[in-house]
Amino acid sequence: MVWVKPYMLYSATASEYFRQMMPATFIDRDLALIRAENPSPMTAEGTNSYILGTTELAVIDPGPDDPAHLARLLDVIDGRRVAAILVTHSHMDHSPLAPRLSNATGAPVLAYGDSHAGRSAQMTALAAQLDIGGGEGVDLGFAPHDTLQDGQILPLGADTITAIWTPGHMGNHMCFLWRDHLFTGDHVMGWAPSLVSPPDGDMQAYMASLARLQGVAARLYHPGHGAIIDRPAARIAELVAHRVARERAILQELDKAPADITSLVTRIYAGTPAALHKAAARNVFAHLADLHARAEVAATPKLCPEASFARMQTR
C-alpha cells in the first residue's frame, strides 16, 4: 500500500505517475483507490475501484470479476463493515465483481437500475430495431439489490453520499458526491472522452449530464479510469467543446454531400489510429441520432448505422 497526495492530479506528469502507482493506493486516510489489472485501449491503466470511510465503508465500482482484484479490495476493507457497494454503471469493467464482493461483505449492491434502466424514449425505440449494434461490454446480468433515485442521500458514518443520475455514457450511469469529491465513473475522465454508443449511450443525455455536473460543488473528480481531475469545470468545458466540434465536423461533411458513417469516420478521424475507428463510429452514430432527433439530419432508409445521412434543408 502506498500514499499519494491529492495534488497528484491529471496532467502528463500525473498520468505517468499514475501508471507507476501500486494497484492499491490511499489518496487520503479515509479514501483508497484500488486499480484493477485490466488495462486496455478502452480502460487506460485499468478500472478504478474506490473505498470510502474509516470504520464504516462504501465501495464504488467493484470492477471486473477478477479474484485477484477481489482479494485486494478485501485486504483494504480488512474486516470493517461495508454499508454499500455503489455501481456507477453496469459495464463489464465496473460491475461484475459486485455479487462476489456482496457475498464476502454482506453489503447490498446499489445502482440506478439494471442495464436497460434509464434509456430515453429514442434509445428504447432504437434498441427495439435490433439492427443498430452497440451493447459493447454491457453486464446484461447486472441486478442491484436496490435501486437509487436521482438525488438520493445515503448515510456513511458522519458523512453522506449523494447519488446523481448522469445518463449518457450509459442510461443507468450515476455519479456519487462525497464531501467535495465526485466519483464520476466513465462520464468524466481526464485521459479520454467517454464512449457514447447507442442504444446504451445517448449523446443528448450525455451533454445534458455534463451541463448538470457544472452545478455540482466538487473540488476533485475521481474517474472510473485514469488520474484524479483537479479542475473539474475546465475538464467539463473541454469535453463539451470536443463534442461540439465533432458535431460541427459531421454537419460540415454532410453540407458537402450525403454520407454514411464509415466515410464520415474516415474523414473526421483521419488522425486517429485505425484500431479506434470502431469506437469512433459509435460516437458518430450517437451524434447522428441526436441530430436526427433535432431534425437536422435525415437518415435513409431509416436511422441505423448503415444508413445514408443527409443534411436537412432549413428554410
UniProtKB/TrEMBL annotation:
UniProt keyword list: Hydrolase
Gene: gloB-2
SUPFAM superfamilies for the chain: Metallo-hydrolase/oxidoreductase
InterPro entries tied to this protein: LACTB2_WH, Metallo-B-lactamas, RibonucZ/Hydroxyglut_hydro, Sec-metab_biosynth-thioest, WH-like_DNA-bd_sf
EC number: 3.1.2.6
Pfam families: Lactamase_B, WHD_BLACT
GO MF term (any one): hydroxyacylglutathione hydrolase activity
Top-level taxon of the source organism: Bacteria
Protein name per the record: Glyoxylase, beta-lactamase superfamily II
Organism the protein comes from: Roseibaca calidilacus
Residue stretches making up the Metallo-beta-lactamase domain: 46-225
Enzyme class: hydrolase
Gene3D superfamilies in alphabetical order: Ribonuclease Z/Hydroxyacylglutathione hydrolase-like, Winged helix-like DNA-binding domain superfamily/Winged helix DNA-binding domain
